[in-house]
Write a structure and sequence with these properties.
By secondary structure, this protein is α+β, with helices and mostly antiparallel strands. Helix content is 45%, strand content 19%. It starts with 9 loop residues before the first strand and ends with a helix.
C-alpha cells in the first residue's frame, strides 16, 4: 500500500554528519534530513558514507512513517463511524416497545401508539407506523427549511 510521496511535499536538507570518521566527516555533506511538510514528520539518516544511500534510506523510512500515520488516521475514522452507527444499547435508543399486558405498541421515533400488538406483529398496522415515520421525517425537513 506504500506509495511514493510527492516531491513538492518534501523538504530535503543535506548536512555534515557527526561522530567518528576523521577528515571525511568534516568535508562531505553525507547526512540527510527529510521533512514531510503536510504532516511535519522528520527523518534524519547518517548511517552511510554516501549521501545518495542515506537519502534512499531516509525516503524509505519517511514513506513508512507517513503511510503508518495515514493508516492510523483511517482506522480512527472507521472506528468513529462504527461508533456512530452502532448504538450503546441504552433504553433510550429503543425503536419500538411491545407491551403485551396492555395490548399496546409504541414507536419511539415518531411517538406513534397502536392498540393491538397482534395486528402489529401480523403486519396490519405496519403501514400506519411507516406512515407516521414518513410524516415525522417530512416535519423535520420542513422545520429545517423554515429555520434556514
Amino acid at each position: 500500500r506504500s506509495t511514493a510521496l510527492p516531491w513538492p511535499e518534501l523538504k530535503i536538507e543535506p548536512y555534515r554528519s557527526g561522530g567518528a570518521g576523521g577528515q571525511h566527516v568534516n568535508t562531505t555533506d553525507s547526512a540527510v534530513r527529510i521533512t514531510h511538510l503536510p504532516t511535519g514528520i522528520q527523518v534524519a539518516i547518517q548511517d552511510e558514507r554516501s549521501q545518495h544511500r542515506n537519502k534512499a534510506k531516509a525516503l524509505k523510512l519517511l514513506n513508512a512513517r507517513v503511510s503508518g500515520l495515514k493508516a492510523e488516521q483511517d482506522r480512527l475514522e472507521r472506528q468513529e463511524l462504527r461508533d456512530k452507527l452502532s448504538g450503546t444499547g441504552n433504553r433510550a435508543e429503543r425503536v419500538r416497545t411491545y407491551n403485551f399486558q396492555h395490548d399496546r405498541v409504541v414507536d419511539h421515533r415518531s411517538h406513534f401508539t397502536a392498540n393491538s400488538v397482534a395486528r402489529t406483529l401480523d403486519g396490519i398496522l405496519l403501514h400506519d407506523i411507516l406512515h407516521s415515520l414518513k410524516l415525522k421525517a417530512q416535519d423535520a425537513k420542513l422545520q429545517a427549511f423554515l429555520n434556514e
